[in-house]
Amino acid sequence: MVNVYVSSVIDASADNVWARVRDFNGLPQWHPLIADSRIENNQPADRVGCIRHFHLRDGGMIRERLLALSDYDYSCSYEILESPMGVSHYTATLKLTPVTDGSRCFAEWSTEFDCEEHRERELADSIGEGVFQGGFDALKRHFGGR
Fold it and tell me: Which of 5, 21, 24, 102 is the most buried (most CB within 10 A)?
């Protein structure tokens, strides 16, 4: 099992960042790797169990199921159902925590998954840097940070 954990501080309140990332179908509006997204079967994007079907800018297609969504905890968890990455048993959680010193939030994105042993480092780096840190960097730019 591979574990990846990335954290960052975003110069915006947890409420404001959560308003941006909460929509399970909203990845194309804030993540630079995502080209388009739709929720299958016209379900609401905040219904646990809904499935998002999206395309990466490089053409890859991914399907993910929403496992949990908490406005109280500013968190969501999901699993990959289908992807070109070669991962299995992939579950991830994105969580925000208010920082009481200023209008900022602490953001955490983590995952665990299985893959072929020789691809563990490559996939951990790609997901950690490209997906998770890339998303945090885009949020920082959006909210006026670095």
Answer: 24
